[in-house]
Amino acid sequence: MKRSASDKNSVRLQVFLSHNGVSSRRKAMDIVKSGRVAVNGTAVTEPSTPVRPGRDKITLDGHTVSSKGMEYILLNKSAGYATTKEVRLDEDNVFRLLPRKFHHLSPVGRLDKNTEGLLLLTNDGDTAYRLTHPKFRVEKTYIVQVEGEIKPPKIKRLINGVIIDDRKTARARVFRVRRGKESSEFFMTIHEGRKRQIRRMCEKVGHKVLNLKRIAQGPLQLGNLASGQWRPLTRTEVQLITRSD
Fold first, then answer.
1. Residue 1's pLDDT band (boundaries 50, 70, 90)?
2. Which CATH class is domain 11-64?
3. Going by fewer Cβ within 10 Å, which terminus of the chain is more open, N or C?
4. Which of 112, 126, 165, 245 is catalytic?
5. For 72-134+220-242, CATH number?
6. In the annotation, is 112 catalytic?
7. Where are the domains of the chain?
């Protein structure tokens, strides 16, 4: 396909795919190179190929990729909902909490089924990548309630790291600790994203997690958004998460 990169209103194919929720820009490059994408019926394998959103027909595996604006929805996920697009008869997913018009969006990272709190959904693949890839060290803060009274030595172990899957967790921050005989509560900030990480860390120091709620991810704050409710990000929030510095 021959087209000048200076065509008015054109964007690179991999950018178009990323901006319309297919994947991150890096993964979009691999998808194009694999021959799965066609423009106006012609297979294209060059990621930098200019395309005109709204005029050219772009397909992935035969399915049209629609041109959408960037959308960012912040959801206060309720416990009991899986962070997945998979539809199962025996399990509710987070999209049950959202209007159908947002069902094309993708969750940014994951929250365990029984974990509640802040979950961002978007069709901006690049921003999702920056918020979740370990190299960017984006902090996530949780309110953690554990069984029993957690003593200072165990708090110190959580801060310094414990061994999970033969690898030590990165240093964490633990603060605002409230201890009780039956249960204890504290805030915990991590920048890794291992599977069930906080639950497993707490189990390592001898405390079962009773409740877990994410209240912040990078610059985003859950605030007073009620459980099961959602809102679009503000313009300021969008600027904070999309800047590349």
1. low
2. alpha beta
3. C
4. 112
5. 3.30.70.580
6. yes
7. 11-64, 72-134+220-242, 139-217
Q: What is the pLDDT of residues 142-157, one digit of tens each?
A: 999 999 999 999 999 9
Is residue 130 within 8 Å of residue 138, measured between CB atoms? yes
The answer on pLDDT for 208 being more than 90 is yes
DSSP per residue, 161-224: --EETTEEPPP-EEEEEE--SSEEEEEEEES---TTHHHHHHHHTT--EEEEEEEEETTEE-TT
We find that the CATH architecture of domain 139-217 is 2-Layer Sandwich (3.30)
CB 128 within 8 A of CB 108: yes
Matching fold, domains 72-134+220-242 and 139-217: yes
| CA angle (60 as vertex; 59, 63 as ends), nearest 5 | 65
The full length of the chain comes to 245
What is the per-residue pLDDT across 31-52, written as a single tens digit (0 to 9) for each? 999 999 999 999 999 999 999 8
